[in-house]
User: What shape does this take?
Amino acid sequence: MIIMKVLITGVPNIVEESVVRLALEGMEGKTKFKILSFSDFMGSEDKAADELKVLKNTQKKIRDSIQMSMIKAKAGDHIIVNGYFTVKGKYGFLPVINKELLDIFKPDFVVHIDVHPLAVEAKIKNPKEFEYHQELERTCAILIGGYSGCAFKFIDAGIDGAREAANELYGLLKGMMVK
Assistant: This one.
């Protein structure tokens, strides 16, 4: 039986993967985490002309991977899905996580990792758009928590706080394991 299922998000390709990696370094040998990262599924395809068709294909890959991970999970395993709720498309934002995926995964907790635009200014083209996307991700965390009936938390990585955010995530995950 899987003990804990956590959905972790942030604005795509920014900081959440490093925060998750740092947080789990402290748990090595203490517990087993299976991590599924959306970046493994989102490639150059996500920039294709037929965005909705590509998105449906990507959603199916994510859903199938989650299903297989849950089937293969051993007693006491935890699953973390690390990704993002939306991606910016040619004509607007597209949802990555859909109802079907949530109904299969049924997260126990949703975590959104915030980052200050100055921390990633070399990676972003438009700080105002970045802040809008981050706000959209926060809103999705609230809605997904409500739909799934689970708690949600925002962790602020600030300008140079990846280590502090990782420590906060570590404490949260460790605390959730003590049931």
Notes: The longest strand covers residues 4-9. Residues 11 and 134 are 6 Å apart (CA to CA).
